[in-house]
Automatic annotation (TrEMBL):
It is an enzyme of class 2 (transferase). One of its GO terms (molecular function) is CDP-diacylglycerol-serine O-phosphatidyltransferase activity. The gene is pssA. This is CDP-diacylglycerol--serine O-phosphatidyltransferase. Belongs to the CDP-alcohol phosphatidyltransferase class-I family. It is a multi-pass membrane protein. The keyword Membrane applies.
Amino acid sequence: METPFPPFEPNGPDDSARGPRLREIPLRLVFPNLITILAICAGLTGIRLAFENRYELAVAMVLVAAFLDGIDGRVARLMKATSKFGAQMDSLADIVNFGVAPALVVYVFALDQARSLGWIAALIYAIAAGLRLARFNVMAERENKASWQSEYFVGVPAPAGAMLVLLPVYLGFLGIATDRTFAFVSSVYTVFIAFLLISRLPVWSGKSDGNRLRRDLVLPMMLGVVLYVALLMSYTWEVMVFTVAAYLVSLPFGARKWRRKYGTLTIEEPGVGDDDIGRHI
């Protein structure tokens, strides 16, 4: 028979025996994580559409996933809703949207005809994207960051890598025959992009506070952005090919600017400890 009175506790109630108390979470803390989840859904949907031979929609979903994955962190900072949970979610989404999804889409579209070599190229790219993201996370968590980290990336960033590796798909949409030769060339190109991801090539980020734009160039730049978006909507794949080519051409200029300033061709970090795996990759 149950007693109507609670048991006597000489030291007060024992809260450790109870389960965790549920508390309300502000919606602003949840919203950035919802964007991350939508990005994962878009990336995975792009993979499905590729296997269904709906390639244009597949590429569009991968690019949408990359866009959403790129803004979730900024939205979190803008809404003051950053959290360790959100950071872990974002890292997991990155490997799907920037590594796995682009690799599988380009494999199904073009690399498949190269058989095992095409699959190996896709694997190399996906692994390289994972290594690139891991290195970025390690560098972002350092307490003492180098001054150049606000101006340069170490290697091509993963979102840009996802855009670059899809070049064979863009060319296929423009009418280039996706035969066996095209598959082998695309495999070599995919491995090349993977190398750019894990390289120590200095890639200008454009995020430095020291970068200023002359007042008289503000309106022409805004007009140029509008023109670019309008062309992208009308001539999507031609503009994407041009964008990839322009990005690749810009890499040597960023490295040249780094060499003039620091005197080396690649980014070296002599202050990193021997126990930091990022020093070796």
